[in-house]
Amino acid sequence: MNGQAASWIWRGVVLSVLAGGAVAAYRWGPRYYAKWTGSGQTAAKQQAVKFATVQRGDLRIVIVEDGSLRAIRNHAIAPTLRRQMTIAWLVPEGTEVRKGDKLVGFEKKALEDQLRQYTADLEGQLREVVIAEKSLEIQYASSASSRKAAETRLRDAEEALRLYRELEAPKKVAELDAAITAARTKYADAQRNLTDVQKQLDDQLFVEEKQRENLLKQLATARTAVSQAEKQLNDAIKAQKTYRRYDYPRTMRSKVQALENAELDQLKANVAATNEVNQKQQSLRRVQDTIARLQRNIEELNQELERCTLYAPADGMVIYGDPQSGPYYYQRGQMQVGSQWYGNNVMMTIPDQSEFEVVFSLGEEYRGKVNVGARATITADAIPGVAIEGTLKKIEGLARPRIQWDPQSPKVFQAVIAPSTSVPTMSSGMTTRVEIVAEVVENVLMVPVEAVFNEDGAPVCYVRGPDGSQRRQVGPGKSNDSMVEIRQGLAEGEQVDLAPVRTASGDGGGTQPATPQQKQAPDGPQPAPGAAPARAAAAPAAPVAAGAESR
Hints:
CATH class of one domain: Mainly Alpha
Largest sheet: 6 strands, antiparallel, barrel
Strand order of the largest sheet: 2-12-16-14-13-17
Number of helices: 6
CATH architecture of one domain: Orthogonal Bundle
Radius of gyration: 65 Å
CATH topology of one domain: Helix Hairpins
Shape: rod-shaped
Order of helices and strands: HHEEEEEEHHEEEEEEEEEEEEEEEEEHH
Oligomer: single chain
Helix content: 40-55%
């Protein structure tokens, strides 16, 4: 209990001291603070903010645009797949990788299943090719045998025709001629014998009847022999005529037809043998083609399986998409595990961090004011305090909408700036601000754009004088975001009022005398009673003054 009481007492003391200090600061602090700082310093600061000096120098007219850093050289990571594949593994964007590190892995199961099917089909076709080769060998032997048999039959037909024409037919004719000659001789002999018997019978006187009967028998025999010989002669002549007119031509035709048939059989055997061999060869080639196709498919699948894994070609940081194709190359949701991706489309890049360029959109209103080769200054919020000089390298010739999906948005030209150097903290995709020097107007008078007002359609400035700020009409020229050229109406060294106090009528008679309360106002001059604020009553003249040509 004693410890808790002491703690509460200590806390009460501390709070009492803090409360007393706050009251004292509120009551006596402002008086001592004013005494220490001095009211003269505050007035000097107010005067420095209120007035600006007309100065002479070079006016830089610049065009300011936002851009982004882009590596000049990028290692594009694009799968060389021949089909649409599913992403199974993906390195996170922004990861620092080393050469050879795995970047992307695609689903392989479908390819592996197809590879197993092709392998099984190949094994079956290898067995088929052995059967086809053996079948072709058998067909070669069978075709050779058929050709040999046809050639043998042709030679036999040729030999049979030759033998019949040169040997058998002449021999048969000779036999028939010989038979006719023999029949004629026999017929002549039979007639002589008949004549002799008849003469004996006519010339002799028979003593006995028996002798006469014998001669009559001989005469009958001779007559029979003559009749038989005559018949044999006629038969021989008839046989010769039959052979010459019928048998020989018919046999010759048969032999010739047999020869022609043998020739046709040989031709048919050759054609059949060739066709059968061709069929077997075609079957073998089909199997061989199938094997070659399966081997190609297996090789392509193996290559496709190898291409399913992508590796880093160099050291660097992974950036999704292709910087060369713009920010709308792919949707962010597409680059994730489970998404589908087509071959030869860039998935990511590894930029070369040694050399960069700045890409930006140049408004079409500035296209005629800058040319390739113009100087530029590059800054980046991510690299504070660093400004890099560069040169406008390229301006595309085709204008595009600033907002890609809005054709009515302002037109811009895509442009590229080449920095003169790079710093280690640069990174591809970093947002930058570029200031392009469109023109340098040398040795001119210039004042801040806040010092020029548009009153009654004329540009004016309020020049500091002994009796207050006096209105003076000026002739403005070219300007940039902060300064405007003064071609007439002001002299070097004069001071212009940035926040003049004017009458509401704006009659140009100068500023109204400031009241004591206005002179003592800690925040600078205040507008006269009933007058509008100065910046609201008279806007800066630079945007509308004659001769203003730039931002």
